[in-house]
Design brief:
The chain is an alpha+beta fold and about 625 residues long. The protein is about 40% helix and about 20% strand.
């Protein structure tokens, strides 16, 4: 073969190899694909479906090979399955990609601890401590390592580590009680008293039975009876360990001894997705601004359909938000359509869900009525009947309206779920457009109409809010009624409410009540306050809770609230839309305007016409204010 021929064959071979390499190169996954894979993997891991989680996270490492998220959660999946060698390989890869990530380091240190390598675990945690100073979970993990050693030096280091945790998380109840136990075993009575006094100051107050042992322990320690105090201290700690505040504080720092389904799981956004969207610019304005994200979220087609529906005169427009699939992100139900939200994108999941509402939806709300851990859906349909859909936990819903006996809503336009009788399940309240109606939850999948039995017969209930207004631990109700005025209903227990409006200070002159109400502690004094707006041009009012179930009118914001008088208010709620606590009211066919207060409130982020007016628009914040506004009206731009 001549040299020219050989050169020709060489060029041809190179061309073939180049073409083959180009053809076989995997195509970079889209943002949509990345988030779908990520959410599926997390969902499987949370439910301990390890083979399925493994499949999804392997796929994620192929789609995004330079990001640590897939490797980390693949390692956690192997860790839960006891496949330690494979877990270590994946976690090491994640740590190489992101050495400063404390969550990745903690997972790797846990693996070292589980496989009998405490020195490697300590080295990893000490490095994390240097790289991420002030991380309470890292400090607590170091403390737990010392707690496993029996020698006196380790006990002293354990005490020091607990103090380190409290230096960055001084209100952590669980860590402080562990320090109390260490000090008591060391015989340091004065230090134990000091720590117990700190426990007294950490809100919320311990339960009554626990306070008895707390007080006894302090008294015994002050009289030098340490041995007797140990008994009452142990009882106090045992009672506190089952309380929600203790469990919540432990969860803040906990370094799990064994892998638990759903913990720990990291959040993550693909790097080139972040760079695609850019970094949010620093706030340089004095009012919160919003930009229209409808198209970005995938709602453009839905908006066009809504506009067409308005033109046809379709008035059934409902909106509800709730995490129906347990992925940590609220999903949406809008006008008889169910949308799954994943990574900021929406998908219409109505057909797969099994939810069918031929005449549309006028009102909707999510609630777990059967206590199975999944949010169910209650809808008032366009035909004026109730529909209850039970969440099966797999993305589909079952229509259980007939079984539950909640089809007759008695003319109501709105609904809310609240445990009125404190029996551990959610009861159903129906209001707006008719009398207040109560369906009591029997916790067997059925409801019983119990309005009269509860003493809640209000003939014209326009709006209802609830809360413990008098601090007795029971849920009270505040009802607005155009004919009967505003009504405060005190929960006396034993499934019985009584009208205490006359003694509450909330009585309205001339019997004219409000159209919409909102409840929140807007002045941060620990007591629930009220906002009431009229539907006929009446004076809106803020009512300040004195802390004993009585209210006084707060007139400081009267000037700013005058804009509400000229509107027919349909609904109001408190939302901190710009991190300075602001209120707005939403009215028919218009986007809400905020009225800004030094300690105020806000209404809706989504504008949906209650009677088919307006358009569905999703909004996302673009900037935050640099300073607070005081008693000044502003408009969200």
């Amino acid at each position: 073969m001549t040299q020219t021929a050989r050169r020709g064959w060489s060029l041809l071979l190179c061309a073939v190899l180049l073409a083959s390499t180009t053809t076989c190169r995997p195509e970079r996954a889209s943002v949509d694909q990345l988030y779908t894979t990520r959410m599926l993997g997390l969902s499987y891991l949370q439910r301990n479906q390890l083979p399925e989680a493994e499949t999804e996270f392997k796929k994620l490492t192929e789609q995004a090979p330079d990001d640590p998220f897939g490797y980390t959660n693949l390692g956690l999946t192997y860790l839960q399955a006891g496949r330690f060698a494979e877990a270590e390989k994946q976690l090491r890869r994640a740590r190489e990609l992101d050495p400063g990530n404390a969550e990745v380091g903690l997972a790797l240190a846990k693996l070292y601890s589980l496989t009998g390598r405490p020195s490697d675990a300590r080295t990893t945690l000490e490095q994390l401590r240097r790289d991420s100073s002030g991380n309470a979970r890292v400090l607590y993990a170091l403390a737990e390592l010392e707690a496993k050693q029996p020698d006196s030096a380790s006990v002293r280091r354990y005490e020091d580590r607990l103090r380190d945790v409290l230096s960055v998380a001084p209100a952590n109840l669980a860590v402080r009680l562990k320090l109390v136990d260490v000090l008591a075993r060391r015989g340091a009575s004065d230090s134990v008293i000091q720590q117990l006094e700190e426990v007294r100051r950490i809100p919320p107050e311990p339960p009554k039975e626990a306070r008895t042992y707390l007080d006894s322990s302090i008294q015994l320690l002050r009289t030098g009876k340490l041995a007797e105090a140990r008994t009452t201290l142990d009882r106090f700690s045992s009672l506190m360990e089952v309380t929600s505040p203790y469990q919540a504080s432990l969860e803040d720092v906990k370094w799990n001894e064994d892998p638990i389904a759903g913990r720990p799981i990291l959040t993550f956004a693909p790097k080139y997705f972040v760079s695609l969207r850019g970094v949010r610019e620093r706030a340089t304005v004095d009012t919160a601004k919003f930009i229209d994200a409808t198209s970005d979220a995938g709602f453009a087609r839905e908006t066009r359909q809504a506009t067409a529906a308005v033109a046809r005169g379709d008035t059934a427009t409902a909106l509800a938000a709730g995490d129906i699939d347990g992925d940590g992100t609220d999903d949406l139900f809008v006008s008889a359509h169910l949308y799954r939200v994943q990574g900021g994108f929406v998908r219409d999941a109505t057909e797969r869900s099994g939810i069918s509402l031929p005449q549309g939806a006028a009102y909707a709300t999510f609630a777990d009525y059967d206590n199975d851990g999944w949010l169910d859906l209650f809808v008032i349909g366009g035909e004026g009947r109730g529909h209850l859909f039970r969440n099966r936990g797999n993305g589909t819903f079952e229509d259980v309206t007939a079984k539950a006996h909640v089809g007759d809503v008695k003319g109501a336009h709105k609904a809310l779920f609240v445990d009125l009788d404190h029996d551990g399940d959610l009861d159903l309240l129906l209001y707006g457009g008719g009398p207040l109606t109560v369906y009591r939850n029997n916790l067997d999948g059925t409801f019983t109409e119990a309005t009269a039995r509860f003493g809640l017969a209000v003939p014209d209930a326009r709006d209802v809010v609830y809360g413990d207004f008098d601090g007795d631990g029971r849920t009270d109700l505040f009802v607005t009624s155009e004919r009967a005025g505003n009504i405060l209903l005190h929960n006396g227990g034993a499934q019985r409410f009584s009208d205490v409006t006359a003694t509450s200070g909330l009585a309205t002159s001339g019997g004219a009540g409000g159209a919409a109400a909102a409840v929140a502690d807007y002045n941060n004094d620990g007591f629930l306050d009220l906002f009431v707006a009229s539907g006929n041009g009446g004076e809106p009012a803020l009512w300040l809770n004195r802390g004993n179930g009585t209210f006084t009118r707060d007139s400081r914001s009267s000037a700013a609230l005058q804009t509400v008088r000229s509107t027919a208010v349909l609904a109001a709620t408190f939302v901190d839309y710009d991190n300075d606590l602001s209120l707005s009211e939403r009215w028919d066919g218009q986007v809400s305007r905020p009225v800004d207060f030094d300690s105020g409130f806000y209404a809706r982020r989504w504008s949906v016409g209650d009677r088919g007016h307006g358009r569905r628009r999703g909004w996302r914040p673009r900037s935050r204010p640099d300073r607070w506004w005081r008693w000044a009206e502003t408009t969200a731009q």
